[in-house]
Amino acid sequence: MKLRLALPLTLALAGPAAALDLDAMTPAERTAFRAEVRAYLLENPEVLQEAIGVLQERQQQAQVGNDAALVSANSDAIFNDGHSFVGGNPDGDITVVEFMDYRCGYCKRAFPEVEALVAGDGNIRYIIKEFPILGEQSVLASRFAIATQIVAGDAAYKDVHNTLMEFTGDVTGQALVRVADALGLDMAAITAEMDSDAVTAIIAENRALADAMQITGTPTFVFEDQLVRGYVQGAQMEQLVAALRAE
């Protein structure tokens, strides 16, 4: 069935796709059809905006579904790897996981908001994933933090984590010595551990997990079964937590 060009374009577009037999058109009919479509879109550009909005919404929904599947497939490594720092309320009803890098500006921006969320809520289990991706200084900082956890425990690790998140200079060996001295840590023991197989394995495991979850940037958060990529304001975090509890 050939398209009747005398019909209004809106009516033609409203019919089933099969009614528009483009292959059956003559070259002249096809040229006229394209010209009418172009004219209609130029006269009604809001149609394009509406179509783009629908496409973006569908893509977002597809991404959410894909991310939820990634969280489910990797849940043990995300929530119970046996080496990542667990803070907040270990028995909390909501678990928040953060993949972070000490050289990441957005991680530093999110840091006080994450701290406020965990402290203010009181019922959040908070897990930190060391994910150094921004160069050698990032790797050095993560090795120092992980080695501190192995040598001195979780409390010392969190002190180091907090200090490095607020640190603004270059991460060097001398800078880390000053951090250790300020926190009363045994720098010799930490230094001996920094290049150990255990520290290397933890970083490698976190990178493999991030790769499996298609995480390429920091910060990236997991709120229960929801993967949230990029910086999130504190108010948005609170809304996410409230929505999860309401489910």
Explain how this protein is built.
It contains eleven helices and five strands; from the N terminus they run ααααββαβαααααββα. It has helices at about 10-15, 25-45, 45-75, 75-80, 105-120, 135-150, 155-165, 175-185, 185-195, 195-210, 235-245; strands at about 85-90, 95-100, 125-130, 220-225, 225-230. α6 (about 135-150) crosses α9 and α6 packs across α10 (about 195-210).
SSE run: HHHHEEHEHHHHHEEH
Distance N to C terminus: 51 Å
Helix % is 55-70%
Average pLDDT over all residues: 88
Which labels suit this protein?
single chain, 247 residues, alpha+beta, 5-stranded mixed β-sheet, 11 helices, 61% helix, disordered N terminus
What's the topology here?
Layout: H1 9-14, H2 27-43, H3 46-73, H4 75-79, E1 85-88, E2 94-100, H5 105-121, E3 124-130, H6 136-152, H7 154-166, H8 173-183, H9 187-194, H10 197-212, E4 220-223, E5 226-229, H11 234-246
Parallel strand pairs: 2-3
Antiparallel strand pairs: 1-3, 2-4, 4-5
Helix pairs in contact: 6-7, 6-9, 6-10
